[in-house]
Amino acid sequence: MVLPPCWSTSDARFSMPRVGATLPKLLPAQQRNLPAALVSPQRRDPMLELPERHLQRAVWQLLSDPARVWQTLSGKRLQVLAPGELNVYEGPDFRDMVLLLEGTILVGDGEFHRTAREWLRHGHPQDPRYARVLLHIVTNPGGIPPGGMPEVLVIPEAELTAILHTLAAQETPTEALVSLQELQYFALLRLLRHTVQVRQYTQQWEFPESFQRLLMSFFERYLRKRRRPVHTSRTLQALLEAFPSSALMEFLQAFHRGSAHPLTLRLYELGQRRIATEGAHLRMEILLNCVVPYILAHATADQRVEILSWYWSAPARVRYGQLQRRFPGFPQRYMWQQQGMLEFLRQSGSGLLCRELLLSYRFGDLLEFYQTAERLLGY
Q1: pLDDT by residue (tens digit) across 85-144?
Q2: CA 238, CA 317: separation in Å to the nearest integer?
Q3: pLDDT per residue as tens digits for the range 153-175
Q4: Which residues, in sequence order, are bridge partners of residue 99?
Q5: DSSP 159-179
Q6: Contact 1, 347 (CB under 8 A)
Q7: Cis amide linkage into residue 262, ω under 30° from 0
Q8: CA–CA separation, 99 vs 152, rounded Å?
């Protein structure tokens, strides 16, 4: 796998204006980059005048925030964990999106239209190219076909307009978006890999031995790192010995009893409380590599929503010097960004695209809360 040149760009997500924010005045050169519908004050409904390719790109960026919780037209909770590959050719607009729908991770395609009735008008239900579409994204819900897949998500026009202004002011907006989209896949891949590993431990041992062995395995990998580990084997052994009487043990016991709620707050508190004498950096590594995969492997659908909401929104408390040197232009504002970069480094010799990597692990055979469109729709 070749490192995309766009990894040296800044994260496009953080330049997006909030809804209702006053947009900056554009220079004449920037106005020339905008579709005419956005700069002409005489248009009553500029959204209908825009070429769909401009809206498609803006929708893609709007859906590139994995921490945002949406609600579909049927009332289901939705997070877009990865917005998919932007497709400018025939077929669905977004290929291999990763969705968290009511606690289940789904992998399939997405299609955007201005109005919902265009799904039928364009003949998509009979077109095999659209058979994997799980999410229909619209700005106008009129003419919704009754029931079933795909789920319909109505997105606000005001936010699309704000993003279109932002994209027009950027020199290479697509490159920045691709870097973010790739990173989200790698962050999810890393979390699911660790969750599958937890399942292997819990099939052999009961709690708390299963978690203790998970910790031991993580510490062994830590000591084998090529770079000299910061903590000695004695320090790590002290952590293992302190675990049975630690706040972490109390949390895991409460989780198994169903009383560790709200999970997002409890996970935040764990990051603040020492197990033994470890620093914040090692404690966060334990949280991300052991604790979060462990509870995700045992979570109910509602708990998975909480856990993944925390995973995609938790700010990074420490910076990785290795990542800053390797990716100097990429932000480490959130922990998932760091996890995505670490997984990219791990997978860099595979030769597969990140979407192909996610599919190659066949998580659907190992995790009951992970489904591809093919399995979900029965073909």
Answers
A1: 888 888 999 999 999 999 999 999 999 988 888 888 888 888 999 999 999 999 888 766
A2: 23
A3: 999 988 988 888 777 665 444 44
A4: 80, 106
A5: HHHHHHHHHHT-SSHHHHHHH
A6: yes
A7: yes
A8: 13
